[in-house]
Amino acid sequence: MRTPPRAPQRTASPLLLSRDQRQLGDRLYARAHRGELVAVRPGVYAPADWWADLKPYERYRERVHAAVLAFPDALFFRESAAALHGLPLFGEASHIHLFDGQARATTTFGDVVVHASKTPRAAVRMEGEDALATGLLETIVDTARALPPAYGLALVDAALHMGVSLDALSAIVASDSNRRGTRKLAWAFEFADAHSESVGESVSRAVIHWLGFPVPTLQQRFWSEGREDRTDFWWPDHRIIGESDGYGKYAAHTATEAVRTIVAEKLREDRLRRQSRGFARWDWSDAHRVRPVRAKLLAAGLPVIGPPNTAMLATLRGRTP
């Protein structure tokens, strides 16, 4: 097992505490009333413009850091621990999750859930953070068993990609008295692939499988015109390529840079099309709506080889892409 990378270091936080307002030149409440600040949680504020620009999963990560300021001695659990470990997040979760090994029952107050369990969790202090979280392996297992199956698969894929072993994760499951989601975890462990490079690829792979299409090869390399290109999905028996788009790769600071990026991607796609019989491209929203992925793969010439798993596909219904 490779040594898992450390959680990414945060840049200076723009979060402001009401308890520090006497050190500031202006009252936080007055600034919030003027719309300059938003309340992230009671007593914690953020610049409104900055907050509005965050993606849903980024807002959740910041809500967790705001909770760290509010509950500095708490042990963060599940998705909240995943945020501190730098693991993938999916949208903006509704709750902050804490763990209390002394509690007799799980309780909820406001947006905070304090979980109880017969199986204790070790606390690790996150490097560069004044925060306690459950260990990396425990966090992966606890979070994956609570997520929809496709998201759980994405989390396990990411864990394998960063060097965590399935044996280590399986040992955590075997030692836990909580049997919730055990079948879901077993499926994720069996289907997981360390070659998956993004949550979009992982969720798409689950959808492809549940639609009854063949299982693809991941990250296939092609050489053409003196260039090496990799594809997200490749079906060698049918010579069909599939691409799960994450539009972050098209982000640019200037119009010229944006045009250059789009042209480079178009040339890459043209090279790949010349080496395949069919080519399909979809995005995160398509994967959640399912039908667009099916239509695009059928149009590319990929055959369906099995019946759809409607129960598993239904677990993505209503999820916010």
Layout: helices, strands, pairs:
Elements: E1 16-17, H1 28-33, E2 37-41, E3 44-47, H2 48-52, H3 56-70, E4 75-76, H4 78-85, E5 96-99, E6 107-109, E7 112-115, E8 123-125, E9 132-134, H5 136-146, H6 149-161, H7 166-175, H8 182-191, H9 199-210, E10 217-224, E11 227-235, E12 240-245, H10 255-273, E13 278-283, H11 284-289, H12 291-300, H13 310-313
Parallel strand pairs: 4-9, 5-7, 12-13
Antiparallel strand pairs: 1-3, 2-3, 4-5, 6-7, 8-9, 10-11, 11-12
Helix pairs in contact: 4-5, 5-6, 5-7, 6-8, 6-9
Description:
The structure is a single chain. The chain has 321 residues and is an alpha+beta fold. It contains 13 helices and 13 strands. Helix 5 runs antiparallel to helix 6 (149-161), helix 5 packs across helix 7 (166-175) and helix 6 (149-161) packs across helix 9. The two termini are 32 Å apart. The model is unreliable at 1-7 (pLDDT under 50).
Summarize the structure.
This protein has helices spanning 28-33, 48-52, 56-70, 78-85, 136-146, 149-161, 166-175, 182-191, 199-210, 255-273, 284-289, 291-300, 310-313, and strands spanning 16-17, 37-41, 44-47, 75-76, 96-99, 107-109, 112-115, 123-125, 132-134, 217-224, 227-235, 240-245, 278-283. With 321 residues, the chain is of the alpha+beta class. The protein has a 6-stranded mixed β-sheet with strand order 6-7-5-4-9-8. Strands 10-11-12-13 form a 4-stranded mixed β-sheet, with helices on both faces.
Number of strands: 13
Helix content: 40-55%
With helices defined by DSSP (H or I, 4 residues minimum), what is the helix count? 13
List the helices and strands in order: EHEEHHEHEEEEEHHHHHEEEHEHHH
Structural class: alpha+beta
Hey, roughly how much beta strand do the residues contain?
15-25%
Termini separation: 32 Å
